Amino acid sequence: MDTQHKPKGEWLKLHNQFYYLVYGLVLIFFGAIWYINYRSVVESGSAFKMFAPNETVGLILQYAAIIYALAAIPGALYWFKRKCLAFSRVENEDLKYDLYYSYAFLRTGAIALTMPLSLVAYLLLGAYTPMIWLAAIGAVAFVFCKPTARKAEEELRPQDEDLKY
Prior knowledge:
Layout: H1 8-44, H2 56-87, H3 93-112, H4 114-124, H5 129-143, H6 149-155
Helix pairs in contact: 1-3, 1-4, 2-3, 2-4, 2-5, 4-5
């Protein structure tokens, strides 16, 4: 059975578009949250707040954002590295790149979700600063998902399993 594969360049173009779309949406989202807090400070003298950080709901929101970030960032990076080792053994080049970029979209999405989740927690907890730091950590991790042709070639290069460091 013959299947249609996308060329490497088309995959890279799609992933770059997805990557910059996500970054753009997060920046717009951050701007909207900043504006909501700004308007709240101007009108009432304090930041917008739905929950106090030390209330049960506030703690649950904080822990959910922190646990997701702690699980998703290293988990997605490690999982993708393991998948790349498996993909590097695939002999069909078209299939290899189809698999690589399909899983790259999942890695990018899992890591990208840390930013808006943290920003929502920041807003709902009344400009709670640790949540901004969590969003910044997500943004730094997101930089490591930047798709390039050289990076794809390097990650899909067959590895010598007997090589010890």
